[in-house]
Amino acid sequence: MASQNTEQNWDIFCTVVDNYGDIGVTWRLAKQLAVEHKINVTLWVDDLNSFQHILPQLDPKLVTQTHFGIKINQWSEPLKAGYYAGDVLIEAFACELPAQVKQQLITAKQHYAEDATQPKPPVWLNLEYLSAESWVEGCHGLPSMQTSGLKKYFYFPGFTDKTGGLICEKQLFGQRDVWQADINNRLNLFESLGLQGIKASDTVVSIFSYETASLLALCQLWQHSEQTVHALIPKGRCLNSLVELLPCSVDEISAGSQIKLNNLVIHILPMTDQEGYDKLLWSCDFNIVRGEDSFLRAQWAAKPFIWHIYVQEDDYHLIKLDAFMQLYCNNLPPELANSWKALNLAFNQEQAAETSEHWQQLNLADLPLQQHAKQWPIDAINDVDLVSRLVQFVKNS
Ligand SMILES: Cc1cn([C@H]2C[C@H](O)[C@@H](COP(=O)(O)OP(=O)(O)O[C@H]3O[C@@H](C)[C@H](O)[C@@H](O)[C@H]3O)O2)c(=O)[nH]c1=O
Known about the structure:
By secondary structure, this protein is α/β, with parallel strands linked by helices. It folds into two domains: about 170 residues; about 210 residues, Rossmann fold. Helices cover about 40% and strands about 15% of the residues. It has 14 helices and 14 strands. The strands form two sheets. Strands 3-4-2-1-5-6-8-7 form an eight-stranded mixed β-sheet, covered by helices on one side. A six-stranded mixed β-sheet has the order 11-12-10-9-13-14. Helix 6 packs across helix 8, helix 7 packs across helix 12 and helix 11 runs antiparallel to helix 12. The relative contact order is 0.11. The structure holds 2'-deoxy-thymidine-beta-L-rhamnose. The site of 2'-deoxy-thymidine-beta-L-rhamnose has 23 residues, from helix 1, helix 8 and helix 9. It catalyses: dTDP-beta-L-rhamnose + L-arginyl-[protein] = N(omega)-(alpha-L-rhamnosyl)-L-arginyl-[protein] + dTDP + H(+).
């Protein structure tokens, strides 16, 4: 009961469209709400098998289970675990709430309208996808009146103070700095993942992209690089782009495989939990990431990166990519900004030759590039992270 009890109960509903981004973002959100704001969170997920890839201890057969203090309920219809209206209800990325949940909201509203001592109906929010586009500022926080008479708010993550902010745990940058200050952490991590032969002077790149000819071009280039390049690839979609380099079919490749191609060594990794993936990003010299959540975590890793954006109809993703690149490059020397942007654009447009060319122009040891990667997270977070802004938003609504 929001008005009588300080303990808050929030529900988050998430459908897994494809890949891991939707569940990845909502799982981070749930963990931070629970850990930093002591909120009782119930996360409803329609595909626990996908979820298990990033939370290995999850049992996809269970209707309800608790991990990290968060109740995780299977979302099948009709719901097997009961939904009871709490203080806040978040639908992630415009997923359609079950009819029985909507009915509970209407009932809660009616009861409250008849008797104001009854619990208020939950604050209802739709969590949107992250975009750096300027229109986001105008739409963040807008309410939309539903036919039921209930209000639903649109919550837009973003990079400016007029948006909903970015997911980032309070201790994250401190933990990252401690990790990166000691080279042994990186080498120990590689060892614990079973990666052999990585020397401190080698270049290490993590790769979690979608399929693209640009990736093949980069790997072909790295084969002939002066220094050894280690490509760390969690088993998944991007391997399909490297078929012509692989000694066997993608299906036969398993986590733990190591493929040596002249000066390029490809290591196939198991997927780990999110905390393990963060550490991997902190430990590499360069990260190739995708979607929404790994994209943000690559920024928080304070290392240079390529963002392989999720493709949208009519090339709309290129507009989103451009909006982000403009922001990211604001304080970079123009020549460096141009080559970083050109690399990202070529990679996303599958321009293999241009991707190789722009990679060669980018010097990973370049000090301004590294300094920018370190300063950017501080500027981007803009004082207040998404979860703190969200809690405040709920208080004000
Ligand atoms: C490789 C790896 C990833 N992860 C996590 C990090 C992220 O939370 C998640 C991957 O999510 P993303 O980076 O967002 O990429 P994605 O491609 O998996 O998800 C995408 O899904 C689409 C449906 C959305 O529309 C996109 O915006 C995007 O979110 O997986 C691990 O926890 N361990 C791992 O080993």
